[in-house]
Amino acid sequence: MSIVLLGDMEENKFLLTGDVGLKGLEKAIEKGNKIGIPLTEVNFYQIPHHGSRHNLSPSIMNKMVGNIVSEGIKLKKVAYASVAYESDYPRKAVVNAFIRRGVQVYKTSGYTLNRSFLMPKREGWSSIPELPFSEKVEDWDK
After folding, report:
1. Is the pLDDT higher at 110 or at 89?
2. With helix as H, strand as E and coil as C, how does the chain read?
3. Record's InterPro entries (predicted)?
4. Angle CA(22)–CA(46)–CA(87) in degrees, nearest 5?
């Protein structure tokens, strides 16, 4: 069981998902719609369960993030996967699913991250690289 947290702060909406699965995401989507905040309006997503492909599906992605956009389109949305240093997560298929929907994807990979809005950059902090689209993804059984 996981807690899903939807935050709405001025122009920023964020979704923290922990290890939630498909049923929990479906409930979060329904609740967001019920309170008038569709999850497609979120611009900061935590990718569930470190980017495991078992915690997302195409239909959930469409309802949570939005439909697939034209290749190369980048919306003002980001997604982060919390993963250990040298982890093989997030799965490339999951990264691709977000990128196909115009979302820029990042992984923590042992970094301490700071994300701010309308604040000056912190001295000594730098950007992390955006994850690329992968032409080849892992075997499903891996």
Report:
1. 89
2. CCCCEEEEECCEEEEECCCCCHHHHHHHHHHHHHCCCCHHHCCEEECHHHHCHHHCCHHHHHHHCCCCCCCCCCCCCEEEECCCCCCCCCCHHHHHHHHHCCCEEEECCCCCCCCCCCCCCCCCCCCCCCCCCCCCCCCCCC
3. RibonucZ/Hydroxyglut_hydro
4. 95
pLDDT tens digits for range 2-12: 899 999 988 89
Domain range summary for the chain, segments of one domain joined by +: 5-107
Q: What is the pLDDT of residues 57-102, one digit of tens each?
A: 999 999 999 999 999 999 999 999 999 988 889 999 999 999 999 9
CB count in 10 Å sphere of residue 107: 24
Residue 105: phi and psi, rounded to 5, are -115, 140
> Furthest-apart CA pair in the chain: how many Å?
44
